[in-house]
Amino acid sequence: MGRPRTNDETVKERLVVCATEMLATRPRESVTVRAVAAAAEASTTAVYSLFGGKDGLIGAVRDRAVAGLFQELSAVRSSADPLTDLYALAVAYRSWGRGHRHLYTVLFGGVQSFDPSGEAGASDPIRPLLAAIDRALTASVLDGEATSIALSIWATLHGLVTLELAGALDAATTEAAFHSTMHATLRGWATPAAFHTLRQAELAP
Prior knowledge:
Elements: H1 9-25, H2 33-39, H3 44-51, H4 54-74, H5 82-99, H6 101-107, H7 126-138, H8 146-165, H9 171-189, H10 192-203
Helix pairs in contact: 1-4, 1-6, 3-4, 4-5, 4-6, 5-6, 5-7, 5-8, 7-8, 8-9, 9-10
């Protein structure tokens, strides 16, 4: 009879969860293999056996965050109105950040770099946003360069979500700021004909 497997999926999951929390709440240099293993009630050997070491474990955390955000954004269905879709993507982005605070912090807090000039991979969270922007450009409701528009929207979203997660704004202010700021960002890239449509949508109850 073989020896029982101790470094199994359960241990792997505990290590990823503990590493995620520690990376989101502590200085990265303090997140050692020994510290994560102790928090997960596992051995340091398990980290090396399952992930190859600290870098592999951090990579697993990053991959989970990227996959989770991509899945959330990809679930937003396309409609005949790409501007509506862009707003819906912003809502989905915010929803994922609120529901996965630690993963969000890890993803945009230094572990995962955002390269607005790089090519979007097949599972890159930026891909659904770029697809909606491309449709908006084709429909002549946005005017500009796709990457610049994507970076503008992402920077706005990141600022709003970061403030919300930090508790810097009360609930009512957060809701109002998200609604008005996202519409203002889209209007900034809108063609003249689309500008008025966006303004009406913003003022709608």
